[in-house]
TrEMBL record:
Pfam families according to UniProt: BBE
Protein's recorded name: Berberine/berberine-like domain-containing protein
A molecular function (GO) term: oxidoreductase activity
Keywords: FAD, Flavoprotein, Oxidoreductase
Tree of life domain: Bacteria
Required cofactor names: FAD
Stated family: Belongs to the oxygen-dependent FAD-linked oxidoreductase family.
Residue intervals of the Berberine/berberine-like domain: 262-305
Gene3D superfamilies listed in its UniProt record: 3.30.465.10, 3.40.462.20
Signal peptide: none
Length: 307
């Protein structure tokens, strides 16, 4: 929720200690920063996970933050019919809002019936925040709370305990142009027909500081989106796996005319072209891979290939 004001966590990465392969069997520890192995620092800012070596220490630029205002709005089953309208209004408000606002939109399947939006505004401005979001809060009859608190309390508030492990399929996209009515209708249709009630979409407003950094300045490519969207469906017994994964994959297919790329932190094995994650930065990531891991010691299903 701070990305629009402070950039990505990886934009604030200034140093890494890494164990890299050396020769056929060996390893060496290197210190990476802007002056040493700068190409590897570039790669670690968005493309590092498991591809080049083992990171043993990260150094981040830190930024001051004190009071924040958080909001949460929850709509129940009676309002689920408004899901397209809510997403439409949310996408028109939050990606263009003041950079101090980071906002999430989360809609569960019609079977579940819950829709939520939550967010964080840096500062103690409850009234302007309520006014900004009034077009959203005015749809249906949501339960809305707005509270001002120290940032650490907000962090603890949003950092829910992790769900117990469960089988699940995720996928994700970047929405560069606000969804037109047909795309909103597609989202509605998939959520209405989801086979598992816990299936959901989760969207995060983008832009602000993230979009002011050039797409080739770091390995993280998808900076010009209006918002990020991921969706997932868990399952509990084996017979549900097929319908749940098909729903996730068909949803991805149906969204293709309206979206761009995908987020590497939500790896989807139905994606075979890694440019979907890394865009035009893939070629440079491969150069860095050839330089630091020419034997491809670090490889997995969707790792950066040598060529
Ligand atoms: C419920 C859930 C919620 C999530 N929410 C978010 C979110 O809000 N935002 C977000 O960005 N992502 C989110 N993710 C994705 C998650 O942050 C990424 O998958 C991330 O890569 C996990 O890192 P890890 O080290 O914990 O995982 P791992 O699966 O252990 O590692 C991911 C990759 O990094 C490699 N790796 C691990 N440790 C090192 C190391 N020391 N050095 C080099 N490579 C290493 C692994 O080999 C692997 O390829 C979520 C995932 C789940 C399951």
């Amino acid at each position: 929720m701070l990305a629009r004001s402070m950039g990505l966590a990886s934009d604030n990465l200034v140093g890494v200690e890494m164990v890299i392969p050396s020769g056929k069997q060996g390893a060496e520890v290197i210190q990476i920063d802007e002056n040493n192995h700068a190409d590897l620092l570039w790669a670690c800012r968005g493309g590092g996970g498991g591809n080049f070596g083992i990171a043993t220490s990260f150094t981040f630029k830190i930024r001051p933050i004190s009071t924040v205002t958080i909001y949460e709005a929850t709509w129940g089953s009676a309002d689920w019919q408004h899901v397209s309208e809510l997403l439409s209004v949310w996408q028109s408000l939050t990606p263009s809002a003041d950079d101090q606002l980071g906002s999430v939109f989360n809609a569960n399947s019609q079977k579940d019936g819950t829709i939520t939006s939550s967010g964080l505004f840096i500062g103690s401005q409850e009234t302007p925040l309520r006014q900004l979001l009034q077009p959203l809060f005015g749809i249906g009859t949501p339960k809305v709370t707005i509270q001002t608190m120290p940032y650490l309390d907000a962090w603890l508030h949003f950092a829910a305990p992790p769900d117990p492990p469960r089988p699940d399929k995720f996928s994700s996209v970047w929405v560069y142009d606000a969804f037109p009515p047909e795309a909103l209708e597609t989202v509605h249709r998939f959520l209405a027909n989801a086979p598992i009630s816990q299936a959901n979409i989760w969207c995060l407003s983008w832009g602000g500081e993230v979009s002011r950094i050039p797409t080739d300045a770091t390995a993280f490519y998808h900076r010009d989106a209006q918002f990020y969207m991921e969706w997932d469906s868990p399952w509990t017994n084996d017979t549900e796996e097929g319908p749940a994964t098909a729903w996730v994959e068909q949803f991805r297919e149906a969204l293709q005319p309206y979206v761009n790329g995908s987020y590497i932190n939500v790896p989807d094995r139905s994606i075979t072209d890694l440019r979907v994650y890394y865009g035009d930065n893939l070629a440079r990531l491969q150069e860095v891979k050839r330089m630091y891991d020419p034997e491809n010691v670090f490889h997995f299903e969707q790792s950066i290939p040598l060529t």
